[in-house]
Specification:
Blueprint: H1 2-6, H2 8-33, H3 39-72, H4 77-93, H5 96-109
Helix pairs in contact: 2-3
Length: about 110
């Protein structure tokens, strides 16, 4: 499961590429059988050729990698909350004087937006 999640973009793109390539060869085979006299078969084959080279390559990669990067990002919202809770707990373990010093240091170093 970890490999699927870690390399999700690769597996999705591989599946889409194989599906697109299969569709291309199916329509090419139909075109070969009908000696390219069937207009719709030729149009569909050409459409899948274009889909492979343009749409699948450019648009899908950009959208898919942005989505999968966001989903699998270690800096997602829940991870930030977990880290914040850890830091808050560690700060509570400090003595009051040390906590105030640390809090001022963090506020200077990383001001809130």
């Amino acid at each position: 499961m970890n490999t699927l999640k870690k390399h999700g973009f690769f597996w999705v793109m591989l599946g889409l590429f194989v599906g697109s390539l299969t569709a291309h060869f199916v329509f090419a085979w139909f075109a070969y059988l009908s000696n390219e006299q069937d207009y719709w078969v030729t149009v569909m084959r050409d459409m899948f050729e274009n889909w492979q080279s343009e749409m699948l390559q450019l648009m899908l990669q950009i959208v898919l990698i942005a989505y999968l990067w966001f989903v699998g990002s270690p800096s997602s919202h829940s991870e930030e909350e977990r880290l914040e809770a850890k830091v808050d707990w560690m700060c509570e373990q400090l003595h009051q004087h040390e906590y105030i010093k640390f809090k001022h240091f963090i506020e200077r170093q990383y001001p809130k937006k």
